[in-house]
Write a structure and sequence with these properties.
single chain; Ubiquitin Conjugating Enzyme; 1 helix; about 15% helix; binds zinc ion
Length: about 90
């Protein structure tokens, strides 16, 4: 079954002006939450996603484990793209 991530909200939780990294927590329709690490391009100011971590509020929507897994990595860009409108 293909996972269809649906971001319903996202917010910036930290923003490091020195190295251009900022962290976003994305809230999913299935009640999962994940943290995305973006790096801001120093010239364009556009954030580029670097990393994703599931916040273990709910079992993984893909493998159903309730501990660390890397399933969401495959959806990192989709989740990041959906999160951007909420943090602008
Ligand atoms: Zn998983």
């Amino acid at each position: 079954m293909a996972y269809d991530p649906q971001v319903v909200d996202a917010k910036i939780v930290s923003d490091n002006k020195k190295n251009g990294l900022f962290e976003v927590v994305a809230y999913m329709k299935d009640r999962n939450q994940c943290r995305l690490i973006f790096e801001r391009d120093p010239e364009t100011g556009v954030g580029k996603v670097q990393n994703i971590n599931r916040l273990m509020k709910e079992p993984c929507p893909i493998c159903r484990k309730d501990y660390l897994c890397n399933c969401l990595e495959r959806y990192m860009h989709t989740i990041a793209d959906q999160s951007v409108p909420f943090i602008k």
